[in-house]
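Need a sequence for this fold. Nothing fancy.
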């Protein structure tokens, strides 16, 4: 049997006793599964070892018992006759084909070899061989974030599986649909400290939306079907499926179209919002004078509906880091990004507003700063698909637990039905914010021929017309990319927001290039983040992906240096990444490294060279690396210190200033 907490009857949880080379004595199962990650577990004992469950949360809205409509996909190409036995690994690959999977990111090992052998027999699935499991899961994330389809990655047991951990945590925090499949030692060896054995179900218990340990080969079709349904539905997230090697090798005639065993989960999927709740929201809107939209990643599937809502109401829009592109940042009503490194005018709007419409957001600390001071003058309306987010950090005056696309459709319909759009007039408020834009624009200083990193991003924006898919690592370059590039559509901006995982940018760009052929993909990276997954240049070269890598190289961990400058009297504590014996030399030579992977590249150190260098990068077929040398003294501004409020915003100064 497959151990799944999704089964109503329940199966067992994978718990090892203190002495792991003895029998597994304890097991458990949840009675239901939540559509939302990270809830509390309800356990019941069973005699068979298997997996963990999602932790259940209390639910505060009405829910549908009907599953969302399914998409009919073409059957997989027949490699076997209908009733011919085939290996579990082949059943797995057929199940992936039935889910419409065309690309996987997988690195082979002893416990997953059978899966790779089966992949070679698939006529429709291509494996993209990255060079590290962390790279493969970040690539799967880049694929998922940029396409909206679940990313699929496969790793072997033990170290292969544990190398997926950062990506699983990242996908959970940023609500990315992901299915991770891991090989496991044979069932008889589980709990014996076998070679490359790790209880990955236990390891990933709190960083997945759900996970499975498959103990019966006949359960593979159902488990894979459920895994994709769980990853896509409700609040999206990562699902892990752990398959022992003997299960992969066992012969079976697979079950056709197995039913889902997700009754508890299905009963908790949010229904469309009720009309009376929508009416309450619009009453609050009509009574306000200074409203602001605060939109996040929960709106990523509702871009057109959000734009229509703004068109009808004239309410200005501030975006979170995850929300960039959901509403075009070059529109007159866009306030760009809010929060720690948001624009002054976005944070001013939230501070002064009398109504905050929080759509698809979670009030995280990098947005709110000091919670008591955040939107302290405003009524708050919070709409989100996850009931656990409502009231978790900031108590709303009115809340709806529902899908954002359906909620915005209902709001837009009722606005037009009632003619509210003809009655709303927020012109004085918009004029006040326009004045703030003029007084506090995003800006930077120039020093002779030194290259301001902000300028390099502006040139990239100009030369790509704001149409490229942008990925980043984590640090100063990430914030500058958020501030100075134009994002016109959802899924254009790929960045590790909640977890803040360095090394994300390059493999994510590779995954985005796989999922979006013909689209320009640029990894704006820092020298620190870039080196964390530099090995993925190999896959990018082998597949000749048109990934452009623009490294803002300041030879330092720039964001940590900025905090050292501001709060630690510029005391450098292991933040220099160059060669201390020769600080005048750029080290390492990233262009030489790229050429070692047979990828062309160039380095620029003068502002006058930047435009032509970026143009050459974009015009060169295939991958390219551009190393842009920038001053380490630059600071990301504006900046609200951690735990601060709008009144504490910093707009001036850098590493050249004494504090």
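Here you go.
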């Amino acid at each position: 049997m497959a151990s799944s907490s999704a089964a109503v009857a329940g199966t067992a949880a994978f718990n090892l006793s203190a002495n792991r080379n003895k029998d597994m004595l304890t097991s458990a199962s949840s009675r239901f599964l939540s559509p939302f990650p990270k809830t509390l577990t309800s356990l019941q004992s069973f005699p068979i070892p298997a997996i963990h469950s999602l932790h259940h949360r209390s639910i505060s809205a009405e829910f549908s018992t009907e599953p969302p409509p399914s998409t009919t996909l073409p059957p997989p190409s027949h490699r076997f006759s209908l009733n011919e036995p085939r290996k579990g690994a082949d059943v797995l690959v057929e199940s992936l084909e039935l889910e419409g999977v065309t690309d996987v990111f997988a690195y082979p090992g002893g416990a997953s070899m059978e899966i790779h052998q089966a992949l070679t027999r698939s006529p429709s699935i291509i494996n993209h061989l990255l060079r590290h499991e962390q790279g493969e899961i970040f690539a799967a994330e880049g694929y998922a974030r940029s396409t909206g389809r679940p990313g699929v990655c496969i790793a072997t047991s033990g170290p292969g599986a544990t190398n997926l951990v950062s990506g699983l945590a990242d996908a959970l925090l940023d609500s990315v649909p992901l299915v991770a499949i891991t090989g496991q030692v044979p069932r008889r060896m589980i709990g014996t400290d076998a070679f490359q054995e790790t209880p990955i179900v236990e390891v990933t218990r709190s960083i997945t939306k759900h996970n499975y340990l498959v103990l019966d080969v006949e359960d593979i079709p159902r488990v894979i079907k459920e895994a994709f349904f769980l990853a896509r539905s409700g609040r999206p997230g990562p699902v892990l499926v752990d398959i022992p090697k003997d299960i992969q090798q066992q012969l079976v005639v697979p079950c056709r179209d197995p039913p889902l065993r997700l009754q508890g989960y299905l009963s908790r999927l949010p229904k469309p919002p009720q009309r009376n709740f929508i009416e309450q929201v619009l009453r609050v809107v009509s009574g306000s004078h200074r409203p602001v939209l605060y939109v996040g990643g929960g709106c990523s599937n509702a871009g057109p509906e959000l734009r229509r809502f703004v068109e009808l109401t004239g309410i200005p829009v501030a975006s979170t880091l995850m929300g960039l592109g959901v509403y075009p940042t070059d529109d007159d009503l866009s306030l760009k990004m809010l929060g720690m490194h948001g624009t002054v005018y976005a944070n001013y709007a939230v501070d002064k507003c009398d109504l905050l419409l929080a759509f698809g957001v979670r009030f995280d600390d990098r947005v709110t700063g000091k919670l008591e001071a955040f939107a302290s003058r405003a009524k708050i309306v919070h709409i989100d698909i996850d009931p656990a987010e409502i009231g978790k950090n900031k108590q709303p005056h009115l809340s709806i637990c529902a899908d954002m696309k359906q909620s915005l459709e209902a709001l837009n319909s009722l606005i037009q039905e009632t003619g509210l759009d003809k009655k709303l007039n927020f012109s004085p408020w918009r004029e006040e914010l326009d004045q703030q834009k003029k007084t506090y624009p995003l800006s930077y200083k120039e020093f002779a021929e030194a290259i301001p990193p902000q300028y390099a991003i502006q040139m990239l924006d100009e030369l790509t017309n704001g149409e490229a898919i942008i990925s980043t690592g984590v640090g100063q370059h990430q914030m500058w990319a958020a501030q100075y590039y134009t994002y016109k559509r959802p899924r254009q901006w790929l960045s590790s927001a909640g977890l803040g995982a360095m090394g994300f940018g390059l493999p994510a760009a590779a995954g985005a290039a796989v999922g979006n052929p013909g689209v320009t993909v640029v990894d704006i990276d820092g020298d620190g983040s870039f080196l964390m997954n530099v090995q993925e240049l190999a896959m990018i070269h082998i597949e000749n992906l048109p990934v452009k890598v623009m490294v803002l190289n300041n030879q330092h961990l720039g964001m940590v240096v900025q905090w050292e400058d501001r709060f630690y009297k510029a005391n450098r504590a292991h933040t220099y990444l160059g060669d201390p014996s020769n600080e005048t030399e750029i080290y390492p030579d990233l262009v030489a490294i790229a050429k070692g992977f047979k990828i062309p590249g160039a380095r620029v150190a003068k502002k006058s060279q930047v435009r032509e260098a970026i143009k050459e990068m974009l015009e060169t077929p295939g991958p390219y690396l551009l190393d842009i040398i920038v001053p380490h003294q630059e600071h990301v501004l504006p900046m609200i210190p951690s735990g601060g409020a709008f009144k504490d915003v910093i707009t001036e100064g850098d590493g050249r200033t004494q504090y």
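For context: The first helix runs from residue 88 to 98.
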